Amino acid sequence: MPADSAPPAPARGAAPRTAPHPAPPGPGPGRAAGYRAVFRVAEFPAVFAAHLMSVLGVVVAEISLTVLVYRATGSSLMSALTFALGFLHYALGGTLLAGIADRHPARRVLVACDLVCAACAAAMVWPGTPVAGILVLRCAMAFVAPLFQGARSASLADILGSGEPFVLGRSLLRMVAQSALLTGFGLGGLLLTVLAPREAVALTAAGFLASALLLRLGTRSRPARAGAVRHSPLGGLRAVFGHRRLRALTLLCLAPSVFAVVPEALLTPYADGIGAGTVTLGVLMCALPAGTIAGELWAGSELTPRTRARITAPLAAVSLLPYLAYALRPGPVVVAAALVLAGLAHAHALGVDRMYVDTVPDELRGRAMTLLSTGVMTFQGVGMALAGAAAELFPAHAVVAGSALIGTLVVLLLLAELRATAPTVARAEE
Fold it and tell me: What is the DSSP-derived secondary structure letter of residue 5?
Protein backbone atom coordinates (compact mmCIF):
# COMPACT_ATOMS: atom_id res chain seq x y z
CA MET A 1 0.00 0.00 0.00
CA PRO A 2 1.47 3.42 -0.91
CA ALA A 3 2.65 5.40 2.04
CA ASP A 4 0.45 8.38 1.25
CA SER A 5 -2.81 6.48 0.86
CA ALA A 6 -5.31 5.64 3.58
CA PRO A 7 -6.38 2.03 4.03
CA PRO A 8 -9.70 1.20 2.41
CA ALA A 9 -12.68 0.64 4.67
CA PRO A 10 -13.24 -2.96 5.75
CA ALA A 11 -15.90 -4.91 3.93
CA ARG A 12 -19.22 -5.19 5.69
CA GLY A 13 -18.98 -7.85 8.39
CA ALA A 14 -15.18 -7.87 8.41
CA ALA A 15 -13.32 -7.72 11.69
CA PRO A 16 -12.25 -4.23 12.80
CA ARG A 17 -8.55 -3.54 12.61
CA THR A 18 -6.28 -2.01 15.13
CA ALA A 19 -3.01 -0.38 14.15
CA PRO A 20 -0.55 -3.07 13.03
CA HIS A 21 2.73 -3.64 14.82
CA PRO A 22 5.65 -2.23 12.87
CA ALA A 23 7.50 -4.96 11.01
CA PRO A 24 11.25 -5.31 11.27
CA PRO A 25 13.15 -3.80 8.36
CA GLY A 26 13.06 -6.05 5.34
CA PRO A 27 13.10 -6.04 1.58
CA GLY A 28 10.55 -4.19 -0.45
CA PRO A 29 7.51 -5.86 -2.03
CA GLY A 30 9.37 -6.57 -5.24
CA ARG A 31 11.98 -8.86 -3.69
CA ALA A 32 11.79 -12.15 -1.82
CA ALA A 33 13.00 -11.76 1.75
CA GLY A 34 14.06 -15.37 2.29
CA TYR A 35 14.17 -17.20 5.57
CA ARG A 36 17.58 -15.90 6.61
CA ALA A 37 16.11 -12.43 7.14
CA VAL A 38 13.79 -13.82 9.82
CA PHE A 39 16.71 -15.19 11.83
CA ARG A 40 18.22 -11.71 11.92
CA VAL A 41 15.34 -10.59 14.15
CA ALA A 42 16.81 -10.70 17.64
CA GLU A 43 14.19 -12.84 19.41
CA PHE A 44 13.31 -15.32 16.66
CA PRO A 45 16.29 -17.71 17.06
CA ALA A 46 15.21 -18.33 20.66
CA VAL A 47 11.59 -18.94 19.54
CA PHE A 48 12.75 -21.31 16.80
CA ALA A 49 15.07 -23.26 19.10
CA ALA A 50 12.35 -23.51 21.77
CA HIS A 51 9.90 -24.81 19.17
CA LEU A 52 12.41 -27.41 18.02
CA MET A 53 13.00 -28.57 21.61
CA SER A 54 9.29 -28.86 22.40
CA VAL A 55 8.49 -30.68 19.14
CA LEU A 56 11.26 -33.20 19.75
CA GLY A 57 9.99 -33.60 23.29
CA VAL A 58 6.48 -34.39 22.09
CA VAL A 59 7.72 -36.89 19.49
CA VAL A 60 9.94 -38.71 21.98
CA ALA A 61 7.11 -38.73 24.53
CA GLU A 62 4.62 -40.21 22.08
CA ILE A 63 6.76 -43.16 21.04
CA SER A 64 8.24 -43.76 24.49
CA LEU A 65 4.91 -43.70 26.30
CA THR A 66 3.28 -46.12 23.87
CA VAL A 67 6.15 -48.57 24.45
CA LEU A 68 6.07 -47.98 28.22
CA VAL A 69 2.33 -48.58 28.49
CA TYR A 70 2.46 -51.63 26.24
CA ARG A 71 5.23 -53.22 28.30
CA ALA A 72 3.35 -52.48 31.51
CA THR A 73 -0.06 -53.78 30.35
CA GLY A 74 0.60 -56.06 27.37
CA SER A 75 -2.43 -54.39 25.77
CA SER A 76 -2.31 -53.02 22.21
CA LEU A 77 -5.50 -51.07 22.94
CA MET A 78 -3.95 -49.26 25.91
CA SER A 79 -0.83 -48.51 23.90
CA ALA A 80 -2.87 -47.02 21.05
CA LEU A 81 -5.00 -45.08 23.53
CA THR A 82 -1.86 -43.46 24.96
CA PHE A 83 -1.02 -42.14 21.49
CA ALA A 84 -4.61 -41.06 20.76
CA LEU A 85 -4.86 -39.04 23.98
CA GLY A 86 -2.44 -36.58 22.42
CA PHE A 87 -5.26 -35.55 20.07
CA LEU A 88 -8.48 -36.10 22.00
CA HIS A 89 -8.16 -33.13 24.36
CA TYR A 90 -7.32 -30.55 21.70
CA ALA A 91 -10.92 -29.44 21.19
CA LEU A 92 -11.65 -29.16 24.91
CA GLY A 93 -8.38 -27.47 25.86
CA GLY A 94 -8.39 -25.09 22.91
CA THR A 95 -11.97 -23.96 23.52
CA LEU A 96 -11.72 -23.52 27.30
CA LEU A 97 -8.24 -21.99 27.41
CA ALA A 98 -8.30 -19.78 24.30
CA GLY A 99 -9.05 -16.58 26.23
CA ILE A 100 -5.90 -16.98 28.35
CA ALA A 101 -3.75 -16.36 25.26
CA ASP A 102 -4.91 -12.72 25.16
CA ARG A 103 -5.62 -12.11 28.85
CA HIS A 104 -2.04 -12.73 30.03
CA PRO A 105 1.38 -11.77 28.64
CA ALA A 106 2.38 -14.20 25.89
CA ARG A 107 5.80 -15.04 27.35
CA ARG A 108 4.26 -15.91 30.70
CA VAL A 109 1.69 -18.19 29.03
CA LEU A 110 4.31 -19.96 26.91
CA VAL A 111 6.72 -20.54 29.78
CA ALA A 112 3.89 -21.76 32.03
CA CYS A 113 2.73 -24.27 29.39
CA ASP A 114 6.26 -25.60 28.97
CA LEU A 115 6.66 -25.98 32.73
CA VAL A 116 3.34 -27.82 33.00
CA CYS A 117 4.45 -30.26 30.29
CA ALA A 118 7.87 -30.68 31.91
CA ALA A 119 6.24 -31.43 35.27
CA CYS A 120 3.89 -33.97 33.68
CA ALA A 121 6.77 -35.70 31.89
CA ALA A 122 8.82 -35.77 35.09
CA ALA A 123 5.91 -37.34 36.97
CA MET A 124 5.62 -40.03 34.30
CA VAL A 125 9.27 -40.96 34.89
CA TRP A 126 8.64 -41.70 38.57
CA PRO A 127 8.81 -45.51 38.93
CA GLY A 128 5.68 -45.69 41.06
CA THR A 129 3.42 -43.88 38.59
CA PRO A 130 0.66 -46.31 37.52
CA VAL A 131 -0.58 -46.60 33.94
CA ALA A 132 -3.77 -44.73 34.82
CA GLY A 133 -1.65 -41.87 36.16
CA ILE A 134 0.43 -41.82 32.97
CA LEU A 135 -2.74 -41.50 30.89
CA VAL A 136 -4.01 -38.63 33.06
CA LEU A 137 -0.68 -36.84 32.74
CA ARG A 138 -0.76 -37.39 28.96
CA CYS A 139 -4.19 -35.77 28.90
CA ALA A 140 -2.86 -32.77 30.84
CA MET A 141 -0.06 -32.26 28.32
CA ALA A 142 -2.52 -32.45 25.43
CA PHE A 143 -4.91 -30.08 27.22
CA VAL A 144 -2.44 -27.16 27.29
CA ALA A 145 -0.93 -27.85 23.84
CA PRO A 146 -3.43 -25.74 21.82
CA LEU A 147 -2.99 -22.81 24.22
CA PHE A 148 0.78 -22.97 23.75
CA GLN A 149 0.50 -23.14 19.97
CA GLY A 150 -2.01 -20.31 19.78
CA ALA A 151 -0.05 -18.03 22.11
CA ARG A 152 3.17 -18.72 20.20
CA SER A 153 1.56 -17.97 16.82
CA ALA A 154 0.04 -14.77 18.17
CA SER A 155 3.31 -13.65 19.74
CA LEU A 156 5.12 -14.11 16.42
CA ALA A 157 3.35 -10.99 15.14
CA ASP A 158 4.62 -9.09 18.19
CA ILE A 159 8.19 -10.26 17.54
CA LEU A 160 8.29 -10.20 13.75
CA GLY A 161 5.58 -7.72 12.85
CA SER A 162 2.38 -8.65 11.05
CA GLY A 163 3.76 -8.66 7.51
CA GLU A 164 6.29 -10.69 5.54
CA PRO A 165 8.54 -11.72 8.47
CA PHE A 166 5.50 -13.15 10.30
CA VAL A 167 4.54 -15.25 7.27
CA LEU A 168 8.06 -16.67 6.92
CA GLY A 169 8.48 -17.24 10.66
CA ARG A 170 5.21 -19.16 10.88
CA SER A 171 6.23 -21.15 7.81
CA LEU A 172 9.51 -22.13 9.47
CA LEU A 173 7.73 -23.40 12.57
CA ARG A 174 5.35 -25.42 10.39
CA MET A 175 8.27 -26.99 8.55
CA VAL A 176 9.86 -28.02 11.85
CA ALA A 177 6.65 -29.88 12.72
CA GLN A 178 6.55 -31.53 9.28
CA SER A 179 10.20 -32.53 9.58
CA ALA A 180 9.38 -34.21 12.88
CA LEU A 181 7.01 -36.49 10.95
CA LEU A 182 9.87 -37.48 8.65
CA THR A 183 12.62 -38.00 11.20
CA GLY A 184 11.26 -37.76 14.71
CA PHE A 185 9.75 -41.19 15.12
CA GLY A 186 12.76 -42.85 13.54
CA LEU A 187 15.08 -41.05 15.94
CA GLY A 188 12.77 -41.94 18.81
CA GLY A 189 12.96 -45.59 17.85
CA LEU A 190 16.75 -45.45 17.78
CA LEU A 191 16.75 -43.72 21.16
CA LEU A 192 14.79 -46.57 22.68
CA THR A 193 17.49 -49.02 21.64
CA VAL A 194 19.88 -47.44 24.14
CA LEU A 195 17.48 -46.04 26.77
CA ALA A 196 14.58 -47.45 28.73
CA PRO A 197 11.20 -45.80 27.96
CA ARG A 198 11.16 -43.94 31.29
CA GLU A 199 14.65 -42.59 30.64
CA ALA A 200 13.55 -41.38 27.22
CA VAL A 201 10.58 -39.60 28.79
CA ALA A 202 13.04 -37.90 31.14
CA LEU A 203 14.64 -36.38 28.04
CA THR A 204 11.18 -35.08 27.13
CA ALA A 205 11.00 -33.26 30.46
CA ALA A 206 14.44 -31.80 29.81
CA GLY A 207 13.34 -30.64 26.35
CA PHE A 208 10.35 -28.76 27.76
CA LEU A 209 12.52 -27.17 30.45
CA ALA A 210 15.02 -26.07 27.80
CA SER A 211 12.17 -24.56 25.78
CA ALA A 212 10.89 -22.67 28.81
CA LEU A 213 14.38 -21.34 29.54
CA LEU A 214 14.90 -20.20 25.94
CA LEU A 215 11.59 -18.35 25.87
CA ARG A 216 12.11 -16.78 29.29
CA LEU A 217 15.63 -15.52 28.57
CA GLY A 218 15.50 -15.05 24.81
CA THR A 219 12.27 -13.06 24.35
CA ARG A 220 11.01 -9.76 25.73
CA SER A 221 8.11 -9.44 28.12
CA ARG A 222 5.11 -7.73 26.51
CA PRO A 223 1.79 -6.74 28.05
CA ALA A 224 -1.35 -8.77 27.50
CA ARG A 225 -3.30 -7.83 24.39
CA ALA A 226 -6.75 -7.88 26.00
CA GLY A 227 -5.81 -6.31 29.36
CA ALA A 228 -8.01 -7.42 32.22
CA VAL A 229 -11.09 -8.06 30.06
CA ARG A 230 -12.51 -11.53 30.63
CA HIS A 231 -14.26 -13.59 28.02
CA SER A 232 -16.40 -16.71 28.29
CA PRO A 233 -14.90 -19.94 26.94
CA LEU A 234 -17.12 -19.63 23.86
CA GLY A 235 -16.45 -15.91 23.46
CA GLY A 236 -13.51 -16.55 21.16
CA LEU A 237 -15.66 -18.73 18.89
CA ARG A 238 -18.32 -16.04 18.68
CA ALA A 239 -15.74 -13.33 18.02
CA VAL A 240 -13.98 -15.27 15.26
CA PHE A 241 -17.08 -16.59 13.52
CA GLY A 242 -19.06 -13.40 14.04
CA HIS A 243 -17.14 -11.54 11.31
CA ARG A 244 -17.66 -12.51 7.72
CA ARG A 245 -14.11 -12.41 6.37
CA LEU A 246 -12.47 -13.85 9.47
CA ARG A 247 -15.01 -16.67 9.41
CA ALA A 248 -14.22 -17.43 5.75
CA LEU A 249 -10.46 -17.40 6.37
CA THR A 250 -10.81 -19.64 9.42
CA LEU A 251 -12.91 -22.13 7.49
CA LEU A 252 -10.41 -22.03 4.61
CA CYS A 253 -7.75 -23.14 7.10
CA LEU A 254 -9.96 -25.78 8.73
CA ALA A 255 -12.38 -27.34 6.24
CA PRO A 256 -9.76 -28.72 3.78
CA SER A 257 -8.18 -30.60 6.71
CA VAL A 258 -11.14 -33.00 6.73
CA PHE A 259 -10.37 -34.04 3.15
CA ALA A 260 -6.58 -33.65 3.08
CA VAL A 261 -6.02 -36.37 5.70
CA VAL A 262 -8.07 -39.01 3.88
CA PRO A 263 -5.19 -40.37 1.73
CA GLU A 264 -2.94 -40.69 4.79
CA ALA A 265 -5.70 -42.26 6.87
CA LEU A 266 -6.30 -44.92 4.21
CA LEU A 267 -2.73 -45.35 3.03
CA THR A 268 -2.16 -48.64 4.85
CA PRO A 269 -5.26 -50.44 3.51
CA TYR A 270 -4.71 -48.96 0.04
CA ALA A 271 -1.06 -50.09 -0.03
CA ASP A 272 -2.14 -53.54 1.11
CA GLY A 273 -4.77 -53.65 -1.63
CA ILE A 274 -2.22 -53.00 -4.38
CA GLY A 275 0.32 -55.41 -2.91
CA ALA A 276 2.83 -52.80 -1.70
CA GLY A 277 5.23 -53.89 1.04
CA THR A 278 6.12 -52.16 4.27
CA VAL A 279 9.15 -50.39 2.76
CA THR A 280 6.97 -48.91 0.03
CA LEU A 281 4.41 -47.92 2.64
CA GLY A 282 7.09 -46.08 4.61
CA VAL A 283 8.17 -44.18 1.49
CA LEU A 284 4.57 -43.23 0.71
CA MET A 285 4.06 -41.97 4.26
CA CYS A 286 6.99 -39.61 3.77
CA ALA A 287 5.79 -38.28 0.40
CA LEU A 288 3.21 -35.77 1.65
CA PRO A 289 5.31 -34.10 4.37
CA ALA A 290 8.29 -34.03 2.00
CA GLY A 291 6.19 -32.24 -0.62
CA THR A 292 4.82 -29.84 1.98
CA ILE A 293 8.29 -28.85 3.18
CA ALA A 294 9.55 -28.42 -0.39
CA GLY A 295 6.54 -26.28 -1.33
CA GLU A 296 6.92 -23.94 1.62
CA LEU A 297 10.67 -23.63 1.12
CA TRP A 298 10.13 -22.72 -2.53
CA ALA A 299 7.40 -20.18 -1.81
CA GLY A 300 9.24 -18.60 1.12
CA SER A 301 12.68 -18.49 -0.50
CA GLU A 302 12.01 -17.82 -4.17
CA LEU A 303 8.72 -15.93 -4.42
CA THR A 304 8.00 -12.32 -3.56
CA PRO A 305 5.10 -11.46 -1.23
CA ARG A 306 3.12 -10.12 -4.20
CA THR A 307 3.60 -13.33 -6.18
CA ARG A 308 2.63 -15.48 -3.21
CA ALA A 309 -0.53 -13.41 -2.78
CA ARG A 310 -1.44 -13.93 -6.43
CA ILE A 311 -1.00 -17.72 -6.37
CA THR A 312 -2.72 -18.29 -3.01
CA ALA A 313 -6.22 -18.81 -4.41
CA PRO A 314 -5.19 -20.90 -7.45
CA LEU A 315 -3.00 -23.20 -5.33
CA ALA A 316 -5.73 -23.61 -2.71
CA ALA A 317 -8.24 -24.44 -5.45
CA VAL A 318 -6.09 -27.27 -6.89
CA SER A 319 -4.53 -28.52 -3.66
CA LEU A 320 -6.77 -31.61 -3.45
CA LEU A 321 -7.02 -32.36 -7.18
CA PRO A 322 -3.92 -34.64 -7.30
CA TYR A 323 -5.89 -37.16 -5.23
CA LEU A 324 -8.31 -37.66 -8.13
CA ALA A 325 -5.61 -39.95 -9.54
CA TYR A 326 -6.75 -42.51 -6.96
CA ALA A 327 -9.89 -43.05 -9.05
CA LEU A 328 -7.75 -45.16 -11.42
CA ARG A 329 -6.40 -47.26 -8.51
CA PRO A 330 -2.78 -46.43 -9.43
CA GLY A 331 0.44 -48.05 -8.33
CA PRO A 332 2.92 -46.71 -5.75
CA VAL A 333 4.77 -44.36 -8.16
CA VAL A 334 1.61 -42.47 -9.14
CA VAL A 335 0.40 -42.39 -5.54
CA ALA A 336 3.72 -40.96 -4.38
CA ALA A 337 3.59 -38.33 -7.13
CA ALA A 338 0.03 -37.36 -6.15
CA LEU A 339 1.03 -37.00 -2.50
CA VAL A 340 4.08 -34.88 -3.34
CA LEU A 341 2.05 -32.62 -5.65
CA ALA A 342 -0.61 -32.13 -2.97
CA GLY A 343 2.14 -31.25 -0.51
CA LEU A 344 3.69 -28.73 -2.91
CA ALA A 345 0.31 -27.00 -3.29
CA HIS A 346 0.33 -26.40 0.46
CA ALA A 347 2.54 -23.41 -0.33
CA HIS A 348 -0.73 -21.47 -0.45
CA ALA A 349 -0.66 -21.52 3.37
CA LEU A 350 1.84 -18.63 3.38
CA GLY A 351 -0.63 -16.41 1.57
CA VAL A 352 -3.49 -17.47 3.83
CA ASP A 353 -1.35 -16.71 6.90
CA ARG A 354 -0.76 -13.18 5.62
CA MET A 355 -4.46 -12.60 5.03
CA TYR A 356 -5.33 -14.03 8.43
CA VAL A 357 -2.94 -11.90 10.48
CA ASP A 358 -3.96 -8.81 8.48
CA THR A 359 -7.63 -9.44 9.26
CA VAL A 360 -7.73 -10.55 12.89
CA PRO A 361 -7.78 -7.68 15.44
CA ASP A 362 -4.73 -7.51 17.73
CA GLU A 363 -6.79 -8.01 20.88
CA LEU A 364 -8.32 -11.19 19.42
CA ARG A 365 -5.15 -12.67 17.91
CA GLY A 366 -4.28 -15.09 20.72
CA ARG A 367 -7.76 -16.56 20.91
CA ALA A 368 -8.05 -16.77 17.13
CA MET A 369 -4.71 -18.56 16.76
CA THR A 370 -5.51 -20.96 19.60
CA LEU A 371 -8.86 -21.84 18.08
CA LEU A 372 -7.21 -22.22 14.69
CA SER A 373 -4.66 -24.76 15.93
CA THR A 374 -7.42 -26.52 17.87
CA GLY A 375 -9.66 -26.64 14.85
CA VAL A 376 -7.01 -28.07 12.54
CA MET A 377 -6.31 -30.98 14.89
CA THR A 378 -10.03 -31.57 15.52
CA PHE A 379 -10.96 -31.43 11.83
CA GLN A 380 -8.12 -33.81 10.99
CA GLY A 381 -9.42 -36.25 13.58
CA VAL A 382 -12.94 -35.98 12.15
CA GLY A 383 -11.58 -36.51 8.64
CA MET A 384 -9.71 -39.64 9.67
CA ALA A 385 -12.79 -41.05 11.40
CA LEU A 386 -15.03 -40.32 8.41
CA ALA A 387 -12.48 -41.82 6.03
CA GLY A 388 -12.34 -45.02 8.04
CA ALA A 389 -16.14 -45.25 8.18
CA ALA A 390 -16.48 -44.63 4.44
CA ALA A 391 -13.82 -47.25 3.67
CA GLU A 392 -16.02 -49.85 5.39
CA LEU A 393 -18.60 -49.27 2.65
CA PHE A 394 -16.55 -48.32 -0.39
CA PRO A 395 -13.07 -49.19 -1.77
CA ALA A 396 -10.25 -47.04 -0.39
CA HIS A 397 -9.35 -45.59 -3.78
CA ALA A 398 -12.95 -44.48 -4.35
CA VAL A 399 -13.09 -42.81 -0.92
CA VAL A 400 -9.91 -40.84 -1.58
CA ALA A 401 -11.02 -39.69 -5.04
CA GLY A 402 -14.50 -38.79 -3.79
CA SER A 403 -13.11 -36.79 -0.87
CA ALA A 404 -10.85 -34.88 -3.28
CA LEU A 405 -13.83 -33.91 -5.42
CA ILE A 406 -16.02 -32.85 -2.50
CA GLY A 407 -13.14 -31.04 -0.79
CA THR A 408 -12.33 -29.08 -3.95
CA LEU A 409 -15.94 -27.90 -4.20
CA VAL A 410 -15.82 -26.77 -0.55
CA VAL A 411 -12.57 -24.85 -1.13
CA LEU A 412 -14.02 -23.14 -4.22
CA LEU A 413 -17.05 -21.99 -2.22
CA LEU A 414 -14.81 -20.56 0.51
CA LEU A 415 -12.62 -18.80 -2.06
CA ALA A 416 -15.74 -17.24 -3.57
CA GLU A 417 -16.65 -15.97 -0.11
CA LEU A 418 -13.20 -14.39 0.22
CA ARG A 419 -13.62 -12.64 -3.11
CA ALA A 420 -16.78 -11.08 -1.72
CA THR A 421 -14.52 -9.15 0.71
CA ALA A 422 -12.37 -7.73 -2.10
CA PRO A 423 -11.35 -4.44 -0.35
CA THR A 424 -9.81 -6.40 2.57
CA VAL A 425 -8.11 -8.80 0.14
CA ALA A 426 -6.58 -5.88 -1.72
CA ARG A 427 -5.20 -4.42 1.48
CA ALA A 428 -3.74 -7.75 2.64
CA GLU A 429 -1.89 -8.31 -0.63
CA GLU A 430 -0.19 -4.92 -0.75
Answer: S
**233, 96 Cβ separation under 8 angstroms:** yes
Identity of the amino acid at 4: D
d(CA 134, CA 231): 32
Q: What contacts 24+ positions apart, CB below 8 Å, involve 404-409?
A: 404/259, 404/262, 404/320, 404/321, 404/322, 404/323, 404/324, 404/326, 405/324, 406/259, 407/255, 407/256, 407/258, 407/259, 407/260, 407/320, 408/317, 408/318, 408/320, 408/321
Look up the pTM and report it: 0.71
Angle at 179 between CA 283 and CA 332, to 5 degrees: 15
**Chunked in runs of 10, what are the mean pLDDT values of the chain (430 residues)?**
35 37 44 75 91 82 77 69 62 71 85 93 86 85 84 85 84 83 66 80 89 92 66 64 85 90 85 81 83 90 88 94 94 94 92 86 79 81 83 90 95 92 47
d(CA 264, CA 151): 29
Please report the DSSP string for 328-362 in residue order.
G---HHHHHHHHHHHHHGGGHHHHHHHHHHHHS-G
Residues in the chain: 430
Q: Cα-atom radius of gyration of the chain, to the nearest Å?
A: 21
C-beta separation of 56 from 188 below 8 A: no
